[in-house]
Design goal:
Elements: H1 3-17, H2 31-35, H3 39-53, H4 68-84
């Protein structure tokens, strides 16, 4: 999957799931603040990621994810690793 496809797909399902204006989702924006995530929302986020990209998410994976760019790179790494298997 191309990086641009990951960004487009991610932005689309995050905007829908978290009921946010898609224009607020930018690479430099802080994921937690933009989506107004609390601890339960992180569970929803994990479920949405797993269902849209078909890989398992570990809670500790979110330690280094601050911005949407970090999130895109994380998804790209997981998707590419899955495709190599």
């Amino acid at each position: 999957m191309q990086f641009s496809e990951i960004i487009a797909k991610t932005n689309e399902f995050l905007a829908e799931e978290f009921e946010i204006d898609i224009t607020k989702i930018t690479p430099q924006a802080v994921l937690k603040d933009t989506l107004e995530l609390d601890s339960l929302d992180y569970i929803d986020l994990v479920v949405v990621i797993e269902s849209n990209f078909n890989f398992k998410v570990q809670p500790e994976d979110f330690v280094n994810i601050v911005t949407f760019q970090d999130f895109y790179l994380y998804v790209e790494t997981k998707v590419n690793a899955k495709e190599l298997v």
